[in-house]
Specification:
Layout: E1 8-12, H1 20-26, E2 30-31, E3 35-47, E4 50-61, E5 67-76, E6 80-88, E7 91-99, H2 100-112, E8 120-123, E9 127-136, E10 141-151, E11 159-165, E12 173-181, E13 186-193, E14 203-206, E15 214-219, H3 223-226, E16 239-247, E17 255-259, E18 262-267, E19 277-284, H4 292-306, E20 313-319, E21 323-325, E22 331-332, H5 335-346, H6 356-372, E23 381-388, H7 399-409, E24 414-421, H8 427-435, E25 441-444, H9 450-461, E26 464-472, E27 478-479, E28 485-490, E29 495-501, E30 508-516, E31 520-528, H10 531-536, H11 546-565, H12 569-586, E32 593-599, E33 605-609, E34 635-638, E35 643-648, E36 653-658, E37 666-672, E38 677-685, E39 696-705, E40 710-715, E41 718-722, E42 727-731, E43 735-740, E44 743-747, E45 751-755, E46 759-766, E47 778-784, E48 806-813, E49 820-826, E50 829-840, E51 849-856, E52 872-873
Parallel strand pairs: 3-12, 19-20, 19-23, 23-24, 24-25, 36-51
Antiparallel strand pairs: 1-9, 2-5, 3-4, 4-10, 5-9, 6-7, 6-10, 7-32, 8-43, 11-16, 12-15, 13-16, 14-15, 17-18, 18-29, 20-21, 20-22, 26-28, 26-30, 27-29, 30-31, 32-33, 34-47, 35-36, 37-38, 37-52, 38-39, 39-40, 40-41, 41-42, 43-44, 44-45, 45-46, 46-47, 48-49, 49-50, 50-51
Helix pairs in contact: 4-5, 4-9, 6-7, 11-12
């Protein structure tokens, strides 16, 4: 039996078809050279809007030598992985969900024995990629099997089930089966083929008759049909297999189902007249919105405004460092007002900072004014729609304070919807502020279809049909009910309530629904407690445990939201405990649990965590409020020019200097032969001379760990890790985590590289408008003060791990009255220094914040050891 020497489990997220640099790393379901994929099967069983998906593949290492074989499965972000098993030459690995700390400890123990390897997690547009890799000898047989579960959410009148198919090669036995069972009947089912025209006739939908409770969709191309061309050896299957369906609805009271001791109530009434809307659009027009973001936002707003009716009222607020109102009051959605609003939006020119707090305050005040003056119909729906791509940089910038301010003045009848544009937006903040104020948040990806994403989101909330909905049950009949009161119901959506059914002598369960529309309404419906279970066992491909798992799924999702909004540590701990208990009981991989995959004798282990949500990391504005690791908040930044800011905690001062070198030169920042760590940066230049100067910036940063031969290279396009045999890479659009051979990379809005838990380097990407005549994208570098170097560390930054004694005296007015001059005594030198400001991008990654420091002239001469040219090295991996 062959031993498994280098297993690695990876969980990550990617968008749909990416550029090559991403797709080469993530897209192929089966990776490896000289391998034979015998089969690849996907089976999805959807029962009452709840899907259980199984992906199986059988692979043979048909090469002449041992190699790593990878298995990737892309799943929807909202899905929970429930299990993974793998069989390698008779050795079976079985997965179990455990508390994350427990799983990581067991994994670490295995890794210490050389029985486990790295973890990768990454986020991007609409999917998550589970990836596992195993090193096996020639001739090995490997079987992979992954299970995940997901609840179908109704949007725009239908449910959508996406399966991501990218086998990466031809497969003799390739098959996809989707089985749908809906007790009330299926009113519509269709497939959306994004795999290519050649597959249109191969997708078969089997449904006996309309309103039948079950459907079977099958996709089974043979080898020849999979080829890109008649003689091609590459597979043409690369894309999303989408099934859309809707169900029959007998009553506006909804559909109540009872199974396995649990109930689920689906509420989606139709044939109701839309309620009038009062909408304030709050649009970020700061400098960071320049280019495609603003263009797509304007395009989307043109279409959204056309959707308004005479019954609706609206206004537009645009903001940067200032806040402006197109109209100080709500106006009707007449053709004249809409035309004027379109013209206003078309003329917006993005620039300046971001004052989110003041913009939201003005929006709420506008609704309050209209309400207090009796200008808002009591049956109408009032909402604020915020569109922004960045963190606040002007006015109130503390996120918790902004949340508190909005929460304080928002009325219960108002809702806030947040749309975050771009990969580096603090979506966590936008989500919290929306959830707190009866709305939802949506991430909008700044690509070619951003306008369509904005329009689609608006379509989902543009037709409110009901307000103040309550779905209730007799108290002695149910327990542990999920959220059952809702602020609004929108056309084309669905409200879902689940819970446990208590033992009772009654054979039926009844629900009572009340809501407010143009008139107050009350509806009730019931369900036989045993009928559905009897029906489910008759259908071979139904998922009999759907109600139990759906209740747990909804409950955990709601608890995760509660945890995010928890006001106290005690509340957060209580909710955390509830999430972990449910996740372990129902075997869901959540943000608080992990999937530990063990061999039968528990000697070899693989670990899969759930992906992290993109958040601000070290030294951002949120971190400075106390949420970061303390030692990372005092650091030595290196940004454009490139300018250096050295924090000297012993002297309680910051010292700045520029390095005036040439494009292409590689500067050593840290050279530590004792730990084997070297950090270098290569300079790039601006596009042309500006103000008689060709500015230089860091375009590439390299972090090398020589003992294990691992190198991390960060450019303005990519982040890559290599150990000579294994290469991993991803773009700045991803959110990722990689751990390999002592190096950990965490990529959120920035990159943090950690070596052996002792040395950290943070890198920021500064984007500029691509058509800017002068500026280019560049990198900023931040290195903590208390990295644990060896005594021999040196480099432009490394040398200051031993803080020099600094004395500043003779402070006097300089030639510029705003910049004082002084004499600095350091390292036996007396230097003329100038008091001034430098930009530090830790707190504000877009505009930068000003740091008051003593500036050393002549490229740091006298403050750094030797001359700056002494720090120029021949390549990115060289020590001094």
């Amino acid at each position: 039996t062959a031993a498994i020497t280098d297993p690695a489990v990876i969980c990550c997220l990617k968008t749909r078809p990416l550029n090559c640099s991403d797709s080469c790393f993530l897209s192929q379901a089966i990776r490896g050279d000289d391998i034979t994929v015998k089969s690849y099967r996907v089976e999805s069983r959807i029962t009452s809007r709840f899907a259980h998906v199984t992906v199986r593949s059988s692979v043979v290492n048909s090469g002449s030598k041992a190699q790593s074989i990878g298995f990737n499965v892309q799943i929807p972000k909202q899905a929970f992985i429930t299990n993974f098993t793998m069989n390698v030459n008779g050795i079976t690995f079985v997965g179990s969900v455990k508390e994350k700390t427990v799983a990581r400890n067991l994994y670490t123990q295995a890794r210490a024995r050389g029985k486990a390897a790295g973890i990768i997690r990454a986020n991007s547009q609409d999917m998550e990629t589970f990836k596992t890799e195993v090193h096996v000898p020639s001739g090995s047989n490997i079987e992979f099997e992954l299970h995940y579960q997901e609840m179908m959410h109704r949007k725009l009148g239908h449910y959508e089930h996406n399966l991501y198919l990218q086998p990466g090669r031809l497969v003799p036995q390739f098959q996809v089966d989707v089985y749908i069972f809906e007790p009330k009947g299926i009113s519509m089912v269709q497939t959306s083929n994004t795999l290519g025209q050649q597959f249109t006739e191969l997708i078969k939908v089997q449904i006996i008759y309309l309103m039948c409770p079950q459907a079977h969709i099958v996709f089974k191309p043979n080898l020849q049909q999979q080829r890109k061309c008649d003689n091609c050896t590459d597979s043409a299957i690369d894309g999303t297999f989408t099934v859309m369906y809707d169900v029959k609805r007998d009553s506006n009271a909804g559909e109540l189902q009872v199974s396995d001791g649990h109930f689920v109530h689906f509420f989606a009434p139709t044939n109701l007249s839309p309620l009038p809307k009062n909408i304030v659009f709050v649009i970020d027009v700061s400098g960071s919105m320049w280019g495609v973001k603003m263009k797509q936002t304007v395009e989307a707003m043109q279409a959204i405004l056309d959707d308004l009716t005479l019954d609706d009222q609206f206004s537009i607020i645009d903001f940067n460092h200032n806040v402006r109102c197109w109209s100080e009051d709500l106006v009707s959605g007449s053709s004249i007002q809409i035309a004027d609003a379109k013209k206003y939006i078309q003329n917006i020119k993005p620039n300046g900072g971001t004052n989110i707090n003041e913009a939201l305050m003005r929006a709420v005040q506008m609704l309050l004014k209209a309400s207090n003056q009796g200008l808002i119909d009591s049956r109408s729906v009032s909402m604020i729609i915020l569109v922004s791509d960045g963190d606040p940089t002007v006015g109130e910038i503390k996120l918790s304070a902004i949340q508190k301010n909005v929460r304080k003045i928002m009325r219960e009848e108002f809702s806030l919807f947040s749309l975050g544009i771009g990969f580096d937006v603090d979506f966590d903040f936008l989500e919290r502020i929306a959830m707190e104020n009866r709305g939802i948040a949506q991430r909008i990806y700044a690509n070619h279809d951003a306008a369509e994403q904005l329009r689609t989101f608006y379509s989902q909330v543009s037709s409110p049909l009901l307000r103040r909905i309550a779905i209730q049950f007799p108290e002695d009949s149910v327990s542990e009910v999920t959220q059952n009161r809702f602020d609004k119901y929108f056309s084309g959506s669905e409200l879902v309530v689940a819970g446990k059914v208590l033992p009772s002598e009654s054979n039926t369960l009844t629900s009572f629904t009340t809501a407010s529309a143009r008139l107050d309404i009350r509806m009730d419906t019931g369900a036989d407690i045993a009928e559905l279970d009897t029906e489910l066992v008759k259908h071979q491909h139904s998922f009999t445990g759907f109600a139990r798992q759906m209740w747990a799924y909804i409950t955990i999702k709601q608890l995760i939201s509660d945890r995010s909004l928890a006001q106290t540590a005690a509340k957060k701990r209580m909710v955390t405990k509830q999430i972990m208990s449910l996740a372990l009981e129902h075997q869901f991989v959540t943000p608080l649990t992990a999937l530990l995959v063990e061999s039968e004798d528990a000697t070899e282990r693989l670990l899969a965590d759930s992906p992290r949500d993109p958040k601000h990391g070290c030294c951002s504005a949120t971190v400075l409020n106390g949420s970061c690791r303390p030692h990372m908040c005092a650091s030595h930044p290196v940004d454009n020019d490139p300018h250096f800011i050295v924090h000297l905690p012993g002297s309680n001062m910051d010292v700045c200097f520029n390095i005036d070198s040439k494009p292409g030169h590689i500067l050593n920042l840290v050279s530590d032969r004792g730990t084997g760590v070297v950090v270098n940066g290569q300079l790039i230049s601006s596009k042309q001379v500006h103000n008689s100067k060709l500015s230089t910036y860091f375009g590439t940063i390299s972090v090398d760990y020589q003992p294990d031969g691992v190198s991390v290279t960060i450019t303005t396009d990519m982040i890559a890790m290599s150990d000579g045999s294994n290469n991993h890479s991803f773009t700045w659009a991803a959110t990722a985590e990689i751990t390999q051979d002592g190096i950990n990379i965490v990529k959120n809005s920035h990159v943090i590289v950690t070596v052996n838990d002792n040395i950290q380097v943070m890198v920021l990407l500064h984007r500029v408008y691509k058509k800017h005549p002068v500026n280019v994208d560049f990198l900023g570098v931040y290195i903590p003060n208390d990295n644990q170097y060896s005594p021999v560390v040196h480099g432009l930054i490394g040398q200051f791990s031993r803080e020099p004694e600094v004395n500043v005296f003779d402070i006097h007015e300089g030639a510029d009255p705003l910049k004082k001059e002084a004499t600095m005594e350091v390292k036996g030198n007396k230097l003329l220094v100038t008091r001034g400001w430098q930009k530090d991008y830790r707190r504000d990654t877009r505009q930068g914040s000003n740091v008051y420091c003593w500036f050393i002239h002549n490229s740091g001469k006298g403050f750094i050891d030797g001359h700056y040219t002494d720090y120029i090295v021949p390549d990115l991996h060289s020590f001094l």
